[in-house]
Amino acid sequence: MAISVFFKEKKYPFLLALTVLFVCVTLLLLTNSTPYPLYDLQSSSSSQPHPIASTAKNGAVSDGKIAAVNVSWALCPGPLAVDFIPCLDNWKAIKALKSRRHMEHRERHCPAPGLRCLPPLPRGYKVKVPWPKSRDMIWYDNVPHPKLVEYKKDQNWVRKSGDYLVFPGGGTQFKDGVTHYIEYIQKTLPAIEWGKNIRVILDVGCGVASFGGYLLDKNVITMSFAPKDEHEAQIQFALERGIPATLSVIGTQRLTFPDDAFDLLHCARCRVHWDADGGKPLLELNRILRPGGFFIWSATPVYRDDNERDREVWKSMVALTTAMCWKVVAKSFDSTGIGLVIYQKPDSTSCYSERQNPDPPVCDPKDKKLGSWYVPLSRCLSQLPGYGWPVPWPERLSSKPLSLSPEPESEEKFYKDTKDWSALVSNSYLNNAAINWSSVQNVMDMNAGYGGFAAALIDRPLWVINVIPVHVPDTLPIIFDRGLIGFYHDWCKPLSTYPRTYDLLHSSFLFESLSQRCHIVDVVVEMDRILRPNGFIVIQDTMEMIDKLRPILHSLQWSSIVHHDRYLIGQKGFWRPARFASRS
Question: How many helices (H) and strands (E) in the chain?
Answer without folding.
Answer: 18, 17
